[in-house]
Design goal:
Helix content: 25-40%
Radius of gyration: 17 Å
Order of helices and strands: EEEEEEEHHEEEHHEEEHHHH
Strand order of the largest sheet: 1-8-7-11-10-9-13
């Protein structure tokens, strides 16, 4: 992977507002499991290659693993969601505190437009790399009791993003998020999410994306678009329909 040299002085991006984890539990549909209902942790929390101590995923086919070790969401993004979902009581209750979207890190000061693929961060004693953006699934529909919530999240580009762990350590609420390296400044997460949502199949754009250090799932997604000239189907992901 190509990287720029680490700056002599790391840059403060924001603050880790809340650390959240949960165990997987039976979910809303027959046979489904989820760990989306995460709870805030106090004190130091250990971080390993697969994520936070005490955290699980309900479906390891599409969640978890080294490339999705930690899910991040920007706390300021809750404000437009509260406004958009003003008539939905369940959504309003979820949006009263961090964790509504199943995030592990609730962050202040950094959002999808200010986070770039392959960014390297230090939080606490752990070092992370931004691996990909989130592609929301039907579990958000059921959690918020809003039938098209996953699609709304995708369209908004306020979907959150994932981190892989480069150096295990510990983190806790209040830690500063330090930017150590930004090798791909032209590709913020919001731009990649927009390419996915707008069904962009422009060959030049896709070739540029495929030159990025993508996780295998995104490598396949964009390669298939380039090969076929068409975007992928979303029904299974957004609605749970096969």
């Amino acid at each position: 992977m190509n990287t720029t040299p680490l700056p002599s002085q790391p840059t403060a991006l924001g603050t880790l507002r809340t650390v959240l984890t949960s165990r997987a539990q039976p979910y809303t549909r027959p046979g489904s499991r989820s760990a989306i209902a995460k709870l805030a942790r106090s004190g130091p929390v250990a971080v390993g290659a697969e994520g936070l101590d005490g955290d699980e995923q309900g479906d390891l086919r599409v969640h978890g693993g080294p490339d999705k070790a930690v899910h991040c969401y920007a706390w300021p993004q809750y404000t437009p969601w509260r406004e958009e979902l003003a008539g939905h009581a369940t959504a309003q209750a979820l949006l009263a505190q961090p964790g509504a979207f199943g995030e592990n890190f609730s962050l202040d000061g950094v959002q999808e437009a200010q986070v770039c693929i392959a960014d390297q961060w230090r939080i606490g004693s752990a070092v992370f790399e931004v691996s990909q953006g989130r592609q929301p699934c039907w579990k958000l529909n059921d959690r918020f009791q809003v039938p098209d919530m996953a699609l709304r999240v995708q369209r908004s580009l306020r979907a959150g993003w994932y981190l892989r762990v480069l150096q295990p350590g510990t983190v806790q609420a209040g830690d500063t998020v330090w930017l150590l390296a930004r090798p791909r400044p032209a590709w913020p997460i919001a731009r990649l999410l927009e390419v996915i949502d707008r069904r962009d199949c422009t060959p030049a754009t896709l070739r540029e994306i495929l030159a990025l250090p993508l996780p295998p799932s995104w490598q396949r997604l964009f390669q298939r678009r380039l090969d076929s000239g068409q975007s992928e189907a979303w029904d299974a992901r957004l609605q749970g329909q096969h």
